[in-house]
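Internal tracking record. Fields below are filled automatically when a chain is submitted to the structure queue. Please do not edit lines marked as system-generated. If the sequence contains nonstandard residues, flag them in the REMARKS field before resubmitting.
Queue: standard
Priority: normal
Entity type: single polypeptide chain
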Amino acid sequence: MLRVIAIDGPAASGKSSTAGLVAEQLGWAHLDSGALYRALTLAALDNIGEGGRRKGDAWSGSRIVAVAEQLPVRLVLTGDVFRPEVAGVDVAQAIRSERVTQRVSEIAAIPEVRHWVNVQQREAVGVIA
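SYSTEM-GENERATED OUTPUT FOLLOWS
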């Protein structure tokens, strides 16, 4: 039986820290959806560029998702934590940079990106929806 606890709240409110501690106490794997959005943002910045500030520019949802699929951007279960990878490289540290932090909300607000992230999370934990 699949067991999931979802924690929602504003940015920088301690959701990931709390979720990690709860998962550890329960002996469950921890999946941080924010890490996947951040990995996707890093991939977009590195492969599409700093654009994305004007309507109709290079940061379309379809272009970002295409980059994510091509590299790929994914979550990999390592021990009891899902680690973000871009092109097979662990980016858990790189996604916490100020460069990524400044742009992640912008990427996460794109409907195609949100759909893609939801699909990736379900696949990572083995949910068929």
